[in-house]
Amino acid sequence: MRLLHWTDMASQQDRRTLVVAGNGMVGHKLLEILVERGATAEWDLVTFCEERRPAYDRVGLSSFFSGTSADELSMVAEGFFDQLGLTVHLSDAVVSIDRAAGEVVSAQGRRVAYDALVLATGSYPFVPPIAGNDAPGCFVYRTIDDLEAIREYAAGCQTGAVVGGGLLGLEAANALRNLGLTTHVVEFADRLMPVQVDDGGGSVLRRRIEDLGVAVHTGMATTEILADEAGHVAGMRFKEGDDLPVGMVVFSAGIRPRDQLARDAGLAIGERGGVVVDEACRTSDPRIFAVGECALYAGRIFGLVSPGYQMARVAADRILGGEATFTGADMSTKLKLMGIDVASFGDAFATGEGCEAITYRDPVANVYKRLVLGPPDRRGDRAVAGGILVGDATVYQTLLQMCRGDMPTPRHPEELIFPASSGSATPAVGVGALSPAAMVCSCNNVDKGTICAAVAAGCDNVGAIKKITKAGTGCGGCVPLVTDIMRDEQRKAGIVVLNTLCEHFAYSRQELFDIVRVSRITSFSEVLTAHGTGEGCEICKPAVASMLASLANGHILDGEQAALQDTNDHFLANLQRDGTYSVVPRVPGGEITPDQLIALGEVAKEFSLYTKITGGQRIDLFGARVDQLPHIWRKLIDAGMESGHAYGKALRTVKSCVGQTWCRYGVQDSTALAIDLELRYRGLRAPHKLKGAVSGCTRECAEAQGKDFGVIATERGWNVYVGGNGGMRPRHAELLAADLDREAVFRYLDRFLMFYVRTADRLERTSVWLDKLDGGIEYLRRVVIDDVLGICAELEADMARHVETYECEWKAVVDNPERMERFRTFVNSDEPDPNVVFVTERGQPRPAYFHEKPDPALLAIGAKP
Amino acid sequence: MLVSKVWVDICPLDKLIPGRGVCALVGGLQVAVFRIAGEEIYAISNFDPFSGAFVLSRGIVGSRAERLKVASPIYKQSFDLVTGVCLDDATRSVRTFEVRVAGGMVQVASP
Ligand code: SRM
Ligand SMILES: Cc1cc2nc3c(=O)[nH]c(=O)nc-3n(C[C@H](O)[C@H](O)[C@H](O)COP(=O)(O)OP(=O)(O)OC[C@H]3O[C@@H](n4cnc5c(N)ncnc54)[C@H](O)[C@@H]3O)c2cc1C
Ligand code: SF4
Ligand code: FES
Fold it and tell me: Do A127-253 and A6-124+257-319 have the same topology in CATH?
């Protein structure tokens, strides 16, 4: 219990008390809204929570089985109930309401007088009244305690059944399956999810679920739960068909509102249960409200969380004297059940007058789509009125918006559910096609929907989105994707999107590239003076440097160029978290001689560098200080090695497999081709890094389809793939051309790479670029194979110039004393950086963490006194 | 009271590349010194409060709306070259140093 301070006592007289029965998702939302609106200045908020845990995310309940802890599911912000004016009674339920006295009584004997009372008691799982339904081994699926009990019992079972093939039943079935049980779903109706989908959708869903190994029994009425001698569940008996032996049963046959309290208190109750409320969420007693799954509005129970939250908002507003109203909610749903997309929206069953449905069914891909159209208007056009999608719900958002009237229905709405006819370009799958639930920022768990909401709320730059959503504030890797989503949303909202590089240039990267190329400008200051403003920044400087470098291969550290480079390019090495650098020599195609390995080992030993095999078939040496870099490279170059450009937005590696030379399956010399490609494109500066691979046969050991360009050997030559990506948003490469000879491989790749370099946005990998390219791979083929733009000769000449003028950047440094000068830690001292401290781990050095440093106070010296 | 300042020699001006920084040790402190153009020079701490590494001298120099700044090479937050205040998070800042060019030599006032 909360202690009162003396100062509170005076105002205590005119404080009022709100009692909330139930601290579930909706009850808690109500408290949050009230606190946010400053209600605690006048009200004491007392909540009774029957469960032993305060509110948690019931929607995410199943994730409890995949390792999410009860704490992580909690919805209660740290210290929430410690605030003045808030009290929670855990493991204590309200058992009666004395309306005349204005008091509630709890199971533990508390009596609390209320000025207002909110019932947020939720619902309970309906258990059909059949014999044996309470035997040990029978469960329901509603609370964390239920799930704990299920997990414990399942450990001793081989098979389990779920009674009920609705939304929650299938979720429970998936849980049993994940617990390793042979799982059955028994549904009384003749299809799964009878409330949301029709026969067509139900049968597609059934096949997909059966493919996952779950047995589905529809049209079966369970009449009895059978028990063994010990009284434990042993099987099920049906009105029709044989007995089914099972070790446990989970009932999920619908929900029923928890209205007993309200019934006992004489409040109005619906015919089939539910506390009757009006638009203000008030019950028949004006001092008592009901919200969430226990409330019945207009004859309906809203069994989803979002309508519950709307009710919470309305009740809170009314309690504070407002006028908000609840007038029903959209029950459209889209879920991923066992990895299967299922969506149902609007008038899914075409019950409305004049409504008719178009259905599409693909038994091979096992996809079902039903589009319900409303009656024709005067011009004969019909609007989307509802629909069902099973197996592929990518068009859900679009259709839903049309159904809600937020987006006009096109002339031929059927095209929305039929796949694009063959021959036409594959529809582009840019960010627009990402589902709102798609995870964008994995550091901060932000999905696309959240970012779209921020844009809708007025955020018009990435900085603002970062502040509001936290996306992009961790590792920063998702920022390009966040930017794309923002632009896409703005475009959709009709805002003119200026795809400008930064505040200094009102051009996109592609436009600026064209300006630089056509006007033959060779320095940043010329570009800035002629086409920009201000001093430039960390965005436009490296971007322009990269353009200048891909147009003419001058040394990256010469003249003005030096000031433009990101630190990695400036020191020709990758910056690490402690300010030291890593060194990655090129190992073309991953082929390395024993002597080179020894040389690498010797250098690493001499400079005490940490060594690691990278994911790109080469060796990384970490922990070099700026002043050590040229000395390290001198030795490596003497041993015949060269820069690997691990620091640049440039070609990284061309991964190979051993291919024909050694492998019993290889059909071409994949290693030789990989080496030749790597040597041809080494040093090529691009909008983002580039990776390639060559596999010697279709087994694809080099993972060529995950690279920006990939080549796979065939009996007749080589297949070239482009636009693949691993990393954050993996994408399979697409086939550009098949069965090419070696020379054609080079020709097409030369053109492809140069076309990408010219036209892509800053920090855009080929995968993202190709997704955005109008007409996709078809169009790309027309450009680089059919030469419809007539630029292929130019692209090839650009590449030829690059190949001719390439030199190893490090060799050019160590051969030049002036360039060597740059590599100093301090301009005025030869001391090493005292902040760089290493500790030994597994026999190698690694940077010390803050607490391991001898003098952590050292860190403070840079901060403002 | 006026105590005359101690000016520490850093390096000849022509060693600095316009638009780039270097790091100097001044009285045990790491100072990032940037040359914008001509004799326009700024000095702030080399300490990046977001990463805990001493690296600001290696960032890219530029401007944001009229204000000169450097972007940390680690997580890219920008710091005002004149005030040392972080432009992306005003609750963070780094100290600044007085700097001048005397007889072709760049000098920082020792704190
Ligand atoms: C060293 C290495 C990890 C390792 O220990 O194996 C590595 C380390 C880094 N990766 Fe990587 N990546 C390494 C292989 C990969 C791979 C695997 C591969 O290449 O087969 C991938 C996924 C494949 C792909 O790129 O499609 C990969 C996907 C990324 C990404 C995400 C790119 C994307 O498009 O999603 C980044 C971030 C970026 O580039 O913006 C990244 C960035 C980085 C950076 C440069 C981050 C940074 O700025 O500090 C890391 C520093 C490297 C260094 O200091 O030397 N690294 N990185 C690997 C070096 C390979 C090499 O020899 O050059
Ligand atoms: C497994 C599962 C998955 C779901 N998935 C989704 C989904 O994907 N999308 C969606 O929109 N919805 C989903 N739901 C439904 C969603 O969880 C509910 O709509 C939501 O929880 C309703 O909130 P509520 O506060 O009304 O009820 P509850 O969250 O059930 O909270 C009611 C609370 O009140 C307590 N209580 C009851 N009587 C008393 C009393 N007399 N005194 C004190 N306390 C009492 C109960 O113990 C309970 O803790 C799912 C539900 C489950 C079980
Ligand atoms: S891709 Fe083919 S040739 Fe290459 S290693 Fe694998 S099986 Fe052998
Ligand atoms: S900051 Fe978004 S993924 Fe790391």
Answer: yes
